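Kindly review these tokens for lecture notes.

. . .
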Amino acid sequence: MNEGVEIFPLRTLEQRSSARKHWGVRENEFLFGCVSVFVPEKGQRHLIEALPIVRAVHPEARLLLAGDGACRADLEALTKKLGQAEAVLFPGFVREVAQVYAALDAFAFPSEFEGLGTALQTAMAAGQPCISTKRGALGEVVESERTALVAEPDGKEFAAMMLRLIDDEGLRKKLSDAGRREVEQRFSAERMVENTILVYEDVLRKRRGA
């Protein structure tokens, strides 16, 4: 059962501007982001590999990878190897993670295996247009072209989806609205509590019937 995410009010323009200043991101830059522990199966390398393709068309694109973990040094080395060091932010573990979501233009989740996908659900709840894989439990969270764009965990595939989001404001708005609505209806903390109560009520009815 999903643990449920909080549904907060959408960010204001002032909150977005403040968050971007905090991370050193200009207003005219398009900021993709991901929040996840740095282990190989989370697939952050696919976003880094996508970035040169994206920036060849849109040099204003940047990437914020919030988190820390065993493969951080490898990811930083890959970023330098591909000449993207100035375009990628590695803030480490972020306590005030809301500042990450508030700053973004889109959320990208390249996980190769996922048991829950809370960070993705949180991004959807925050009204971020999202790109995700459908690996593991993510197939139960996103619906391709309706609540998120879906790609295999691969740099070229993610680059294609990232370019679509940059180029299509209408698509970003559609995914933002549908993704937030999906989380409200299926994955919110309130809905989790309701579903938990239903499970307990069902168990009690069956025990009384026995």
User: Anything to note?
Assistant: The chain is about 50% helix and 10% strand. The radius of gyration is 18 Å. The domain at 13-209 is CATH 3.40.50.2000 (Rossmann fold). The CA atoms of residues 12 and 102 lie 9 Å apart.
